[in-house]
Amino acid sequence: MAEEKQSISIDIKNLTKQYGEQKALNNVSLSVNEGEIVGLLGPNGAGKSTMMKILTCFIPLTSGQVTVCGYDVNEEPMKIRSIIGYLPEQNPLYNELYVREDLEFVAGIHGLRGKERKERVDFMIEKVGLQKEVKKKIGMLSKGYKQRVGIAQALIHDPKILILDEPTTGLDPNQLIEIRSLIKELGRNKTVILSTHIMQEVEAVCNRAVIINNGNLVADDTVEALSEGQTLEKKFREITMNV
Ligand code: ADP
Question: pLDDT tens digits, residue range 94-150?
Fold first, then answer.
């Protein structure tokens, strides 16, 4: 088994993903250190979800090398899945399950049993503020609470790495602020990659931003450096419209 690297959590080297004729990622290299919260930005169709699906071992890469905590996505996908938490775009959930039932089910998939499972589910319910909703079916919850269930699911096994694909899409302004601060708080001891279309979200939550355009990595810097002298939004438009 590979040694877990201490400093680099995610290492992407010359990653290319081809869907038939369509090149979704083109020779992308990116390295993310432990504890960083990275905002992944790019217009629709840029390749953000593709990158996240490769990192979480949902789809295979075409060429290049991707390691997560030193484990190669091609060689040790099950190991990677055990140390990664993933909230996919559109947050697919089991609407017919009750909140607790759902979290216990997901915890079980991760191998948690008995007392340990119950304690972990209780901990996550409290952490994401689902106490009052716990007896409801997921289908009955508001969008903001559904997002909380998705985040609780992603974190139930206490992963080292958290991958969130547009976690705040469709939330009202209050929910948005709540979920952002939740991500910031929960991400304190984790490496987080967060894709979003909202620049203020990156400014509020992330310390680093990566911009992808047409499958190419076109910017990678601290949020401060990228927005220096202007807003991140302006910088984003400048970069993605000129390339
Ligand atoms: P983003 O998340 O930035 O919106 P995606 O990674 O979803 O971008 O998509 C990148 C490109 O790859 C898009 O042009 C999209 O249409 C294409 N694509 C995504 N998934 C598939 C697929 N399963 N088959 C074919 N093309 C795909």
Answer: 999 999 999 999 999 999 999 999 999 999 999 899 999 999 999 999 999 999 999
Q: Is 16 exposed, middle or buried (0-12, 13-18, 19+ CB in 10 A)?
A: middle
Residue 106 forms part of a structural domain: no
What is the band of 5 on the pLDDT scale with cuts at 50, 70, 90?
very low
Domain span including residue 230: 8-93+159-242
CA of 237 to the centre of ligand 1 (A): 21
Measured in Å, residue 33 CA sits from the centre of ligand 1 at 26
Ligand 1 center to 97 CA (angstroms): 30
7 CB near ligand 1 (under 6 Å): no
Tell me the sheet residues that pair with 98: 137
Instruction: Give the Cα-Cα-Cα angle 71, 56, 103 (nearest 5 degrees).
Output: 115
Question: Under a CB-based contact definition with an 8 Å cutoff, are residues 213 and 240 in contact?
Answer: yes
- 19 CB near ligand 1 (under 6 Å): yes
Cα of 153 to ligand 1 centre, how many Å? 25
Q: How many domains does one find in the chain?
A: 1
**Which domain CATH number covers 177?**
3.40.50.300
